[in-house]
Design brief:
Layout lengths: L1 H21 L5 E10 L3 H9 L9 H5 L4 E4 L9 E5 L6 E9 L3 E8 L5 E10 L2 E11 L8 H23 L5 E2 L3 E5 L3 E9 L4 H18 L9 E6 L10 E9 L11 E5 L3 E9 L5 H14 L9 E4 L13 E7 L2
Antiparallel strand pairs: 1-7, 2-3, 3-4, 4-5, 5-6, 6-7, 8-14, 9-14, 10-12, 10-13, 11-12, 11-15, 14-16, 15-16
């Protein structure tokens, strides 16, 4: 009986010490990790803001083979979410709650019946690189406070793995441009549609526009002279701007269209113009480098550029699946 009392008192003592120990640990936790990525902020932002892209760098998919992910119909921006089920990690939901364009993205993470964990990614341009910082914060139940340092250490490891994966992926998207050349551009006959979308929805918007335009061209036996083009009439200029884009996309034609057009299509003709042009090679997501190369060329040679350049898609991604082989001609009208 004495032996049982000793065991009972020992257990009560351990439980008492455990309860008392939790008083000395904070109920709040915060984990902060950062890395510099030699890539475009537009590329990095889209990898984080669009759940479809998380498979490129997600730290948990590699370490938990039992995890199964499902994504909401809207995969990017505020309101997008993903749900996971896992034998090892439990079940949970991660939702984008707020974002500032190429500046900050906020998430709420709920794991089963626990208190939510908040996550934020901060993006900052430093020395032509993108500093990405990942922060998690939340509150621990009283009985779990003592485990706060262990939880923070595990979360820190996930951060480091995820950010290194993100860095490795983004830095493999290479950029290459031809030399900039001056060229007189004849008057162009154009059929186009104007649309609005977010940065993550550009591909879908262009696909819908080109489908309408080329259906019309084919149906009416009209000859187009070039591959399709796009102009960005309005584009976010700096971090924190509203992620809302106005674009005009269409095709160059051989003849004038006299008929009235439907489905938002319009026809117009440009004036002859001197241009500065360069060809971008590779993934579209690095095309800002070619735009900057043309702008630098014009500045060095005392030319002023128009604010609405053309991007003409020389290769068709459906016919050329390898992004390294894509070519896009960038044209600025200059004075």
């Amino acid at each position: 009986m004495k032996f049982l009392k000793i065991i009972l008192y020992s257990l009560l003592g351990i439980m008492f010490m455990f309860l008392i120990s939790n008083l000395f640990f904070s109920e709040k936790f915060k984990v902060y990790t950062s890395i510099k990525i030699d890539s475009s902020p537009y590329i990095v932002y889209d990898q984080i803001n669009n759940f479809e892209n998380w498979e490129n760098w997600d730290p948990w998919i590699e370490t938990d083979t039992t995890i199964k992910m499902s994504i909401s119909d809207i995969t990017y921006g505020v309101g997008a979410y993903r749900i996971w089920n896992s034998e090892n990690s439990g079940n949970g939901k991660m939702e984008i709650t707020d974002n500032d364009y190429i500046k900050q993205i906020d998430f709420k993470i709920t794991i089963e019946n626990n208190s939510p964990i908040m996550a934020t990614f901060y993006l900052e341009s430093i020395d032509n690189k993108v500093k990405v910082s990942w922060e998690n914060s939340g509150e621990l139940p009283f009985l779990a406070r003592i485990f706060g340092p262990v939880i923070s250490k595990m979360m820190k490891g996930d951060h480091e793995k995820g950010l290194n994966n993100l860095k490795n992926y983004c830095e493999t998207i290479l950029s290459k441009s031809s030399e900039v050349k001056m060229q007189e551009w004849d008057s162009q006959k154009i059929i186009a549609i104007v649309d609005t979308c977010s940065s993550s929805n550009i591909s879908q918007s262009l696909s819908e526009i080109y489908s309408k335009i080329f259906d019309y061209i084919t149906t009416n036996n009209i000859t187009s002279l070039e591959q399709p083009f796009v102009q960005y009439l309005s584009f976010p200029q700096k971090p924190g701007d509203n992620d809302w884009i106005i674009l005009r996309a269409g095709a160059f034609l051989e003849a004038t269209i006299e008929d009235s057009l439907t489905n938002g299509m319009s026809f117009y003709q440009t004036l002859p113009q001197l241009t500065a042009q360069a060809t971008h090679f590779g993934d579209y997501r690095t095309i800002f480098d070619t735009h900057q190369k043309i702008k630098d060329f014009c500045q060095e040679n005392s030319y002023s550029t128009t604010v609405i350049p053309y991007e003409i898609y020389i290769t068709d991604p459906s016919q050329t699946p390898n992004p390294d082989e894509w070519q896009t001609r960038v044209i600025y009208e200059i004075k």
